[in-house]
């Protein structure tokens, strides 16, 4: 029987608790939702668990969620009252969390298990369209302070073996994340950076990595990402599938009326 190797993904996860606000947003998220709903078919087999690298969690070292029954973190403000009652009761996977810590420790990136961490909206808003039954075991991995891109690529490399053990690795962020210029004000920078990013992803692996490690030199880079927390999950997803081709699995030119946003699949 041939071994199944799961792809990895970088997901532009949208804003706030959007899957639970369809009446308010109308069809604004239809394209993103369809791209997320397509992932189970694309991966070709049901994973044993999902490892989510979330843009909404960081620490002085890498942190790994290890609760068997994670709670909820409503890390947003100004949304309707019902969005602070959302439940996404997917189980945790403490054994996978321990394995992730072991792999990172062995690779020289010491990690700490967090037995209290719940699901933030970068996790539950992205995962709800993919696994709406909330029956897929989930582990979250944080970013590390300093946002060094190579460090996050190296972490992806350390986790690559999980892909052959039934684990789907998802980097959850946004290809454009400037909340002060979210809309028409960010249109030019968004399109500049997104075009550069898609071009960089199409390069051979060594050239692609070189480009991404210098991402802040790209056109529109610092306007698209004043703080790169929502870009760094891409580095982990890339590192875990470093020699494999990138495929655009979601792209819009007029997200929120003006922005270019993209998601990628590796492998």
TrEMBL record:
Superkingdom, natural source: Bacteria
The entry's keywords: Dioxygenase, Metal-binding, Oxidoreductase, Zinc
Pfam families named in the record: LigB (PF02900)
GO molecular function, one term: dioxygenase activity
SUPFAM superfamilies: LigB-like
InterPro entries cross-referenced by the UniProt entry: Extradiol_dOase_DODA, Xdiol_dOase_suB
Essential cofactor(s): Zn(2+)
Segments forming domain Extradiol ring-cleavage dioxygenase class III enzyme subunit B: 28-249
CDD domains the record matches: 45_DOPA_Dioxygenase
Sections of the chain in a coiled coil: none
UniProt keyword annotation of Metal-binding present: yes
Record flagged with keyword Oxidoreductase: yes
UniProt similarity note: Belongs to the DODA-type extradiol aromatic ring-opening dioxygenase family.
Protein name according to UniProt: Dioxygenase
Species this chain originates from: Janthinobacterium kumbetense
């Amino acid at each position: 029987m041939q071994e199944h190797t799961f792809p990895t993904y970088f997901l532009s996860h949208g804003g706030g608790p959007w899957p639970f606000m369809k009446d308010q947003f109308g069809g604004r998220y239809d394209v993103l939702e369809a791209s997320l709903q397509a992932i189970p078919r694309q991966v070709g087999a049901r994973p044993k668990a999902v490892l989510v690298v979330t843009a909404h969690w960081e620490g002085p070292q890498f942190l790994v969620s290890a609760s068997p029954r994670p709670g909820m973190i409503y890390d947003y403000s100004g949304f309707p009252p019902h969005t602070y009652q959302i439940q996404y009761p997917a189980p945790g996977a403490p054994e996978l969390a321990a394995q992730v810590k072991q792999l990172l420790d062995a690779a020289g990136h010491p990690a700490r298990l967090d037995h209290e961490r719940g699901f933030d909206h970068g996790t539950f808003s992205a995962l709800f369209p993919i696994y709406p039954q909330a029956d897929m075991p989930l582990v979250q991995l944080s970013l590390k302070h300093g946002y060094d891109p190579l460090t996050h690529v190296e972490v992806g490399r350390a986790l690559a073996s999980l892909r052959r053990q039934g684990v789907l690795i998802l980097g959850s962020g946004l290809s454009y994340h400037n909340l002060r210029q979210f809309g028409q004000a960010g249109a030019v920078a968004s399109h500049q950076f997104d075009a550069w990013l898609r071009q960089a992803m199409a390069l051979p692996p060594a050239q692609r990595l070189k480009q991404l490690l210098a991402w802040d030199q790209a056109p529109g880079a610092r306007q698209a990402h004043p703080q790169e927390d929502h870009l760094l999950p891409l580095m982990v997803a890339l590192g875990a599938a470093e020699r494999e081709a990138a495929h655009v699995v979601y792209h819009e030119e007029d997200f929120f009326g003006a922005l270019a946003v993209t998601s990628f699949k590796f492998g």
